[in-house]
Design brief:
The chain has 142 residues and is an alpha+beta fold. It has one domain (24-141). 25% of the residues lie in helices and 31% in strands. Strand 3 and strand 4 (60-65) form a beta hairpin. The radius of gyration is 17 Å and the shape is globular.
Length: 142
């Protein structure tokens, strides 16, 4: 309840300070997010803590770390082979973690699995479960 109240207060106070027109979904997904839009960036994720990797589409991949922590990778351009719910391969330069500038790859299945081109990870943006649900819903509509 306190979190909801704090969120509402932040939203209301922000709207009083700046009267900006609300952004539509296409604009939000097209523009690079600012650091204030998310819970914070991390440079690396421990491979041992990653529980799930999901492609949401050809530009968005989520990493579930631990029980209830999520990180979003938002690519600047399409990554061929990444599709919703497709297998995501990743290549690291560190033995125990996947880091910014490491690569993710989509997969193609033509009788045998082929890896798509490498797509560099720009950053890992911490997102809440609620933010992730909103992003998934927006991607369905958009």
């Amino acid at each position: 309840m306190k979190v909801l109240l704090a969120t509402l207060l932040m939203c209301c106070s922000a709207s009083l300070v700046a009267e900006e027109a609300p952004l539509d979904v296409e604009t939000i997904l097209r523009e690079a997010p600012s650091p204030d839009d998310y819970g914070g960036d991390v440079r690396c994720l421990s491979l041992g803590r990653i529980r799930e990797v999901k492609a949401l589409d050809d530009r968005h991949v989520t990493f579930k770390v631990g029980r209830d922590t999520y990180y979003l990778v938002q690519l600047a351009h399409r990554c061929p082979g990444l599709r919703k719910n497709s297998t995501v391969a990743y290549e690291t330069t560190h033995s125990m973690s996947i880091c910014r500038l490491d690569s993710i790859r989509g997969t193609f299945n033509f009788g045998s699995v082929r890896l798509g081109p490498r797509c560099s990870i720009p950053r890992f943006q911490k997102v809440t479960r609620e933010q992730l649900a909103l992003l998934k819903e927006a991607l369905k509509k958009g």
